[in-house]
Design a protein that fits this description.
Layout (H helix, E strand, L loop, with lengths): L4 H18 L8 H14 L4 H15 L5 H22 L12 E3 L6 E3 L2
Antiparallel strand pairs: 1-2
């Protein structure tokens, strides 16, 4: 007994639905990586390759900044360092303090001299 055209369409739809979750067309991948990917998909993501790939990309994006994020981060670090340097330069210098008792500063305030 041959299947009707409608039954064939239903069967095709079922096959396509099953393949949709696990079809992944990546060539030239080492067998060990393919096996790891398939195992991860089965164990963690209900055998859904699309979700597995999406989650792996989220993890990758979290570890490796994209676009200008890395540059922005380094610029922020530099800006903070400049701010700290300016703060130190603007703060009163220690050599403006009075010398310890029994001492005086040289004329250019570079040396501490004991009073005679």
């Amino acid at each position: 007994m041959e299947k009707s055209e409608e039954e064939i369409k239903q069967d095709m739809k079922k096959i396509q639905e099953r393949l949709r979750k696990t079809a992944l067309g990546i060539n030239f991948i080492q067998e060990k990586y393919k096996k790891r990917f398939v195992e991860l998909a089965q164990e963690e993501y209900g055998n859904d390759y699309g979700v597995t790939l999406k989650e792996l990309l989220k993890i990758y994006d979290g570890f490796y900044p994209k676009g200008t994020e890395e540059i922005d981060g380094k610029l922020n670090i530099l800006a903070n360092e400049i701010k700290e340097i300016k703060k130190r330069l603007d703060s009163p210098k220690e050599d403006k303090k009075d010398p310890p008792e029994g001492y005086i500063y040289s004329a250019d305030r570079s040396k501490l001299i004991r009073k005679s």
